[in-house]
Amino acid sequence: MTETTHVTSCPLNCWDVCGLKVTVNEGKVVRVDGDEHHPITKGNICGRGRMLKERVNAKERLLYPLKKVNGQFVRISWEEALDDIAGKMRKLKEQFGPTAVLHSHDYANNGLLKNLDKRFFNCYGGATELVGSLCWGSGIEAQMWDFGNAYSHAPEDIENSRHIVIWGRNVARTNMHLFERLLAAKRRGATIVVIDPLFGSTARIADRYVCVKPGMDAFLAMGVMKELLRLGLEDRTFIEQHTLGFEDVKQVLDTISLSEIERCTGVSRDQMTELARLYGDRPTATYLGLGMQRYANGGNTIRWIDALVAASGNVGIPGGGANFGNLQVGECFDKAALTLPERKTASRTWTMMKQAEEILKADDPPVRMVIVTCGNPLAQVPNTNLMKKAFASVETVVVFEQFMTDTAAMADYVLPVAASFEEEDVYCSSMYHAYINYGPKLVDPPGEAKPDLWIWTELAKRLGFGDDFAYTREQFLAMALRPLEQYGITLARLKAEHRILLPVEPVPWRDRCFQTPSGKYEFTSSVAKQKGMDGRLQIMYPAESEEANPSLAAKYPYRLLTIHPLRSNHSQHYPLIPALQTVRIEVAADVAAAKGLADGDRARVYNDRGSLVGTVKVLDRAYPGTVNIDEGQWGAFGGPVNVLTSDLESDNGCGSTLYDCLVNIEKVTSEAK
Fold first, then answer.
1. What is the DSSP letter of 353?
2. What integer pLDDT is reported at residue 182 of this predicted model?
3. Residue 23 CB partners (closer than 8 Å, separation 6+)
4. Half-sphere exposure of 614 (CA within 13 A, CB side)
């Protein structure tokens, strides 16, 4: 059989969603390259995308349904697995109602048809569902309060920017095609500013680097806005004609001094003045990262940065924007046709962050079954030890998986699922560009692994609603794409052209028509007030900080960050890359000096929730008192950093507080565990 090369898409849930060219020989993926014809990614792909070849071909893939018997997994048939699970679901629904089943999920991979899990549970009658997000939830909610939605400028709009502020996003690691555009912008004379507690690869190309104390980005935005107003650089016309609540902002700013802001942030007044002049010299684009909203004050932080962008007149103009998410991409599809929300008869919702606590206390009804899809919660959800306790308390745990993850190892049933390139789907980015990409099926799954959709269909048949799944993948995709037909976008055209630009606004809010209840940008949010919260911007500290909890800070004086690994999409690639299979503890120079640590030493990081042992690496130019351990590590390789993190919710209830975490650290011998 000769080699064939196919245009497809990267399915990984990241900013770029790259176009790929995948070569297949004798039914096996033999090479993954970038698609040079993709308008955004232009043939350049990251190591995570290239690792998809190793992932799809890995000898560690799960090949058959497994059932735990007397503490050990045994191979069973699909018929037995599906009959068992459907039988249990039927009895639970009869005895307790459908919410006795919890659907625990995350967003490991993209794909329009991944939404069909919701169709299944809605047709079942409902389930206990998770809301919010470990990743970006509090920031999305914040922009909903401010703008009415979370929209970003088109990638090419950066060419209109005079200045570019990268605030808390190491794009060299997480958004490589924006990094390429930054290099081009710098060559044409745009100013690049990076604000981050860690000095990474993006900071190395910046004209200015601002090292801010973790969790204190809102205070920096306050300081810059105070200077913006003192210098008279605000956009009075925009504020007066298109916003509500600016007087509330000024009142808050009057209650805090620049010297206090300097103390909180570690940033000098001169730097704040310089940033104020830069924001006033519009157009200035701001690209926000995900880390700084993973605190108890996370939503408030994004809102203060939004407010700075708005007050400086950088909203709705080419080259401006507060670029966080880009939900207008997902709004192009008819997801209700896929998910059938009207079929739900019962519902219970918990936040993703609090699922362990809620499982343990639920009694109306109790959770008797957990079905896990698109995630590895025992590595990714905060407070791992509580998660383990919660999952161990549940009668039946079912996990859809490709590998024996930490979560799969705790399951009662493990169902082997297809990987990327083994099923047809359509992929898009909800954070950066607006191209949808077609992903054909290229190879068959190994062993008896099946696509998620096949499993949902077979369970639906057994539970009496098989007709709701009596559609092909193409028919389901056509349902989702139906609103785009008026623009000439069809599945047939997408297959022929491989990728198509969606009809979205490249410069959001250009018409000054916001989606808030008032139709204006809201410095004081009426949506928040409708939800029973104070809609005004606040002076708010991280929950675990010297200001909010001095006794805890005395016991645990260091701030733990848990950034995304460079070579793995969350926990996915760890079993395939030996170099990742050790816990690496990165520490600021002052922490190393205080604790007598050097590169290669073994150390233990600990707090009241747990502890983790790893190998030390001293960081260059990190904010004093900071420690970083990449998220996603498997228990087999030292364990996840989330044994240390808190399961608190952010201030607006929609996000995690994974970075709101104080720890201590001590040097240990190599034998210590």
1. G
2. 97
3. 3, 4, 5, 6, 29, 30, 31, 32, 33
4. 28
